[in-house]
Structure formats: structure tokens, C-alpha cells
């Protein structure tokens, strides 16, 4: 592939070489190291609207949006003002504040299938707490997850599929004891027969099933509604709690996430990303009879010094106010459709094996032609095409997350001109690629 002359990354490169002295791999989260796509990671200096600038002064249209939470783009003036005004009174107290009540009330009034929630500091923490709550509520130990769904770096969920369709998982990270992994059953997505077989064999031991209703951490693996409805029905039949991990999809595809979009209701739900307005936050919620098991009301212990941090609460509330406005999600979905349609038409006309898959304002580059990808095992692990396209787009001022397995996001600040520019650059890159 013929690449354009590369952008200057000299300052980012210097910072990366320095950072290797401080952090494993030079980063504080693995994907940031650019190992998947090659080259030096960009050190970002600032963001505004739908743009980011790196330390070398290069400007990019940002389709990563901090991996999803910046649904209003960078540095939204109302969110910014709310953060600054809250900071004037202090940044953290380790005690209750009015802001927690305000954000919780705003969410619960608009999401009728949960009665109470608990704020935490990350999506991983929300999932970890939800699993513990499910075990404490049911008195059972085993959990079921699906191959291709990611739920944060929780020990019991960092597992691969075992040697069979309904077998115990095996550790996928050093430091996770096999005994932990063996409390987790890993099943294929979109396979109700295997799910039912598993439930029939282990229902007396299974506390919960956890799933991303819109799996978006390992490609965008859009499931059939019949599968999600069947999953809900089987969990009810076998008295097993259903957890929806909506850390990405919550408040992104609709205010009430995939739950609202599909009309399928879990027993416990986890949130993150958007409810912090760009600051660290997570939450889990359920009906009263389940949430009353959480300490101090019940025996399931969970705590956090920064849980309900007032600055994060203020940012989240201001962001969610805008998300709740009529037509907000329709407009975002329309932008996303407009963005991908031209690219997909071009690929189809030229018989190129690439299609952008989307739902709401989430999209993913699927280098599998028109083949619908329902599970991670169907994804071609050779990411050469994406890696070359990623490099080309960086040189054209378009920033995507540095991994072909990751999804992209569109914010309210991506306007028609930006979308058309980015789509054209993608088409130009695809021409060179193929």
C-alpha cells in the first residue's frame, strides 16, 4: 500500500520513550501502546468538539471519543462549566453529596426497570460488584459469560472458552487462578440450544448470566433479538439472574441503552462511560429486592472512597440532561448511517471485502465482506488491512482507536462536513488498500 508522507510524531515518540521508564509497556492501558497497528502512540494534548490535537500539533477528527463516553464531544461547554463550578467547592469528600442524589434521581426517573443503583468508579468495578451481588442474592457461585464479550479485567471474567460447547473457562491472563476461572462457564453467542443444555446441567449452581446485549469490545457482534429474548426466557425459567453489561451501550444507543432499544429487561444492569461525562465513573442497579442485599442494608459488601465523586456526578448529570432531549439519539443514529452508507456503497460496487457495521452511534470495520459476524471466532484475526488503513487515516487527520477489534463512536459534535471529509478519506484509503 502506498502511504502518504507520515505525520510528525517526534514529540510523541520522545514522550513514549520516556514513559517506558515509568509504566509497563509505556502505557497505563494496553491498547494505547499501538502494538496492534504499529508505530508510535500519539500523546494527546487537548480535545475540543470532535477534534483532538497531539503533542506534535497534529489535528484529528476523533472517532474514538475516549472509547465512548464523550457522546457530546470533547470539552462540551456546559459539562465544563458544571465541573468547574463543582470544583470550587472541593473535589472529593468521602461523604454523601447532593450531586449523587441529583444524578441518581435523573437516571432512575427515566429507566423504569431498576429501583436503586450504586455508583462506583469504573465499568470494571460495576461488573465486579454486580457479579458479587448476584452470588450473594442467589447463594450460588457459578456464572455464565459468552465468548467474545468483555466485561473489564475482573478475575472470574478474564477467561477463554474451554474445550467444548458448555465447559468451564480457562484463565486468559496470568495471575488469574484456574480455580477462579472454573467458576465461570463460557458459552458461544447466538446459540440457545447450548445455553439450555448448560442450564439443565448446572442451574442449581449458576448465580447469573452476564452478557453485553450489544457486544462491542471484540468487534461489533450484533445478536439476533430472538437470541436475547430466548436468553431472558431461559433465565426466568431456570431462576438464574440476567446481568446486562451496558458499560458501552448504556446511554449510547438510547437513554436506557440496549434494554430500552430492544425492550428486554435484565435483573441487574451495569453502566459506565457516558454517566461520568468523561470522568471516571460506573454504576450497577436492580430492583429493590435485589439491591437491598448491598451493604449497609445487606450482607454483600462493596465500598469505594471515590464512589459518587461530586465532580464526576456533576459532569454526568449535565451530559445526561442533553442526552435526554427529544430526538438526540435519532440524530446521532442518522449521522452514523450517513457516515457509513457511502463507504459501504463504494465497497459493494467494487466488490471489496469490507463493510462498516453499526448500531446507534457505534460502528465497526468488518473486513469480512457481507458476511454477518455473530461471534468473535468468525472474525479474521489477520488485521493487516485495518492496520494499514489506520496508518493511512492518521496521516489524513482521522483518528480511530488503535485496534481492528475496537469499535468507533460518533458524537453530537461530528457535523456533516467532518463526516463527509472522514468518509472520503476512508474511501481513498480503501482504494489504495485494495
How does this model look, in words?
The chain is of the alpha/beta class and 434 residues long. It has 2 domains: 10-75 and 327-433, Aspartate Aminotransferase, domain 1 (Alpha-Beta Complex); 77-323, 3-Layer(aba) Sandwich (Aspartate Aminotransferase, domain 2). It is 35% helix and 15% strand. The strands form 4 sheets. It has an 8-stranded mixed sheet, with helices on both faces. Strands 1-2-3-16 form a 4-stranded mixed sheet. Helix 11 packs parallel to helix 13 (416-433). It is globular, with a radius of gyration of 22 Å.
| Largest sheet, strands/sense/barrel | 8 strands, mixed
> In terms of structural class, how would the helical and strand content be classed?
alpha/beta
- Name the CATH class of the largest domain: Alpha Beta
Q: Going by CATH, what is the homologous superfamily of the largest domain?
A: Type I PLP-dependent aspartate aminotransferase-like (Major domain)
Beta fraction of the residues? Answer: 15-25%
- Low-confidence segments, given as residue ranges, are 162-167
Amino acid at each position: 500500500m502506498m502511504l502518504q508522507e507520515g505525520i510528525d510524531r517526534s514529540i510523541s515518540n520522545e514522550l513514549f520513550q520516556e514513559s517506558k521508564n515509568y509504566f509497563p509497556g509505556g502505557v497505563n492501558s494496553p491498547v494505547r501502546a499501538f502494538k496492534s497497528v504499529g508505530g508510535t502512540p500519539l500523546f494527546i494534548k487537548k480535545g475540543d468538539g470532535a477534534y483532538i490535537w497531539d503533542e506534535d500539533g497534529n489535528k484529528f477528527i476523533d472517532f474514538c471519543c475516549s472509547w465512548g463516553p464523550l457522546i457530546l464531544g470533547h470539552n462540551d461547554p456546559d459539562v465544563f462549566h458544571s465541573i468547574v463550578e463543582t470544583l470550587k467547592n472541593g473535589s472529593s469528600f468521602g461523604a454523601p453529596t447532593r450531586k449523587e442524589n441529583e444524578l441518581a434521581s435523573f437516571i432512575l426517573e427515566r429507566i423504569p426497570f431498576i429501583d436503586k443503583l450504586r455508583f462506583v468508579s469504573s465499568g470494571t468495578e460495576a461488573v465486579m460488584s454486580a457479579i458479587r451481588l448476584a452470588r450473594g442474592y442467589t447463594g450460588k457461585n457459578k456464572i455464565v459469560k459468552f465468548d467474545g464479550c468483555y466485561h473489564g479485567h475482573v478475575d472470574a471474567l478474564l477467561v477463554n472458552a474451554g474445550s467444548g460447547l458448555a465447559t468451564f473457562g480457562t484463565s486468559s491472563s496470568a495471575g488469574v487462578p484456574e480455580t477462579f476461572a472454573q467458576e465461570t462457564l463460557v458459552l458461544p453467542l447466538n446459540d440457545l440450544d447450548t445455553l439450555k443444555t448448560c442450564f439443565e446441567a448446572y442451574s442449581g449452581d449458576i448465580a447469573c448470566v452476564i452478557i453485553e446485549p450489544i457486544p462491542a469490545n471484540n468487534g461489533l457482534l450484533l445478536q439476533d433479538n430472538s437470541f436475547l429474548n430466548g436468553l431472558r426466557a431461559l433465565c426466568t425459567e431456570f431462576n438464574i439472574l440476567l446481568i446486562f453489561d451496558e458499560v458501552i451501550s448504556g446511554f449510547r444507543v438510547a437513554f436506557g441503552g440496549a434494554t430500552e432499544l430492544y425492550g428486554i429487561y435484565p435483573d441487574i444492569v451495569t453502566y459506565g462511560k457516558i454517566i461520568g461525562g468523561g470522568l471516571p465513573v460506573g454504576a450497577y442497579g436492580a430492583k429493590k429486592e435485589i439491591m437491598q442485599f448491598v451493604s449497609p442494608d445487606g450482607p454483600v459488601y462493596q465500598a469505594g472512597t471515590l464512589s459518587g465523586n461530586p465532580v464526576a456526578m456533576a459532569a454526568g448529570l449535565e451530559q445526561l440532561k442533553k442526552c435526554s432531549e427529544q430526538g438526540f439519539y435519532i440524530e446521532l443514529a442518522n449521522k452514523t448511517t450517513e457516515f457509513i452508507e457511502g463507504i459501504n456503497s463504494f465497497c459493494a460496487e467494487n466488490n471489496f471485502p469490507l463493510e462498516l457495521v453499526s448500531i446507534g452511534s457505534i460502528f465497526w470495520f468488518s473486513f469480512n465482506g457481507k458476511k454477518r459476524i455473530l461471534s468473535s471466532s468468525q472474525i479474521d484475526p489477520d488485521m493487516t488491512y485495518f492496520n494499514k488503513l489506520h496508518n493511512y487515516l492518521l496521516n489524513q487527520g482521522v483518528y480511530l482507536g488503535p485496534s481492528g477489534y475496537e469499535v468507533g463512536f460518533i458524537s453530537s459534535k461530528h457535523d456533516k462536513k467532518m463526516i463527509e471529509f472522514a468518509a472520503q478519506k476512508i474511501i481513498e484509503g480503501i482504494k489504495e488498500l485494495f
